[in-house]
Amino acid sequence: REIGTIIRSLGCCPNEGELHDLIAEVEEEEPTGYIRFEKFLPVMTNILVEKRYRPIPEEILLQAFEVLDPTKRGYLSKEELIKYMTEEGEPFSQEEMEEMLSAAIGPESNFIHYRDYITMMVIDEN
Predict the structure, then answer these.
(1) What SS3 state is found at 99?
(2) Which of 16, 18, 26, 60 is the most exposed place for a label (fewest CB within 10 A)?
(3) How many Å apart are CA 82 and CA 109, to the nearest integer?
(4) DSSP secondary structure, 56-98, as one string
(5) Whole-prediction pTM
(6) Which GO terms describe its molecular function (predicted)?
(7) Which residues are 75's β-sheet partners?
(8) d(CA 51, CA 48)
(9) CA neighbor of 50 nearest in space, from 94, 1, 11
(10) Whole-angstrom Cα distance, residue 53 to residue 14?
(11) How far apart are CA 43 and CA 65, in angstroms?
């Protein structure tokens, strides 16, 4: 259950389907709920060497937020963000949603100023 967090902490951004496939690749024949490090290490090393699951570039993230903000206000309300995160595309889990909201939403304004948020979440690849 923590493997996605580990992989993402290494700078990889697989979607849920890719993560599921990766777990299936390193899981034991009889799933125990645990992954053996000896099995995980070579698979993860290959992923890092091949630069698989690279994060989305900043410009693409900005375009995505701008699609959700057709009037170009530069922000989305908490309610709008929750709607998009739960009703569109690959839905966020409750835990993912709460984590994102706590990092993205201004506590006083109840808005996400997405340019600031994108700057905060982009990984420097250099």
Answers:
(1) helix
(2) 60
(3) 15
(4) PPHHHHHHHHHHH-TT--S-EEHHHHHHHHHHSSSPPPHHHHH
(5) 0.62
(6) calcium ion binding
(7) none
(8) 5
(9) 11
(10) 5
(11) 33
Residue that has been written with the tokens 């900005």 in this structure: 62
- In which residue ranges of the chain is CATH 1.10.238.10 found? 58-121
Q: Are 35 and 26 in contact (CB under 8 A)?
A: yes
- Distance (Å, rounded) from C-alpha 45 to C-alpha 60? 27
- For 58-121, CATH number out of 3.10.20.310, 3.40.50.720, 1.20.1740.10, 1.10.238.10 equals 1.10.238.10
Single-letter code of the amino acid located at 124: D
Burial of 114 (0-12, 13-18, 19+ CB in 10 A): buried
Q: Write the pLDDT tens digit of every residue in 72-95.
A: 999 999 999 888 888 887 788 888
